[in-house]
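Hello Y.,

Per our agreement to keep a running log of every chain we model this quarter, I'm adding this entry. I've kept the format consistent with earlier entries: sequence first, then predicted structure.
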Amino acid sequence: MLITKVGVRIDDDIEAGSSLDGTFGWGFSVNRTIRVTQLGILDQPNSVQFVRGDGLAFSHAVALWTSTGNLLAQVTIPAGASGNVVDHFRYVPLTRPVILPPGSYVVGAFYPAPTDQVYDEFSHQYDPVITAFGITYTGGRRVDGSALAFPSMVDDSSGTVVLQQYFGPNFQFVESYVVTFSEALNTTGLILKRAVDYFCSSRLVMTGVMLVIGGVMVSVFAKSRRNRPARKR
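Predicted structure for the entry above:
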């Protein structure tokens, strides 16, 4: 049974927002192959009700990139209280899960500037950053702009500078056991070889048994002929 995990967990945090349109997120590395199934965003207390989990004031585009900016997946988290909620994050499943082999990646979400003092907040978390096993936080990421974009600006990677961490976007994943074509071919070849070896060894055993049985029968037959009384003429 595969267990779904989340990329980062938010415990003690300082809520913050941006006065400008921009994409905010964080970089991470994985040391094993995982399969990302959902992207989400933190439902912090917004400026209307001031209660964590009260729903999002705006819809947010959330995306996953390689560390060099290649887009891997993107969803839109609707405004309000829809979406799958896990530990105060609202998630939307991907149409097709994304396989991430060991390497470096970035997750980010677009946050619009406040409108009439209405806005959604992300989290600035104190050290230590709590990530899932196999996931390593590599620093805050951001970029200004009026639409979702790869957050190319890298902030602190130590996880200790509160004002440079942007934990809004998040993801859910399961560990994925991916077999390459060559591995599958090698495995298939090994299975076939063992089957042939087994078949051949079985044939050899059966041949040996038959030879032994045949030899015993010949020996018994020859002995019986020697012991048979001679016919009188």
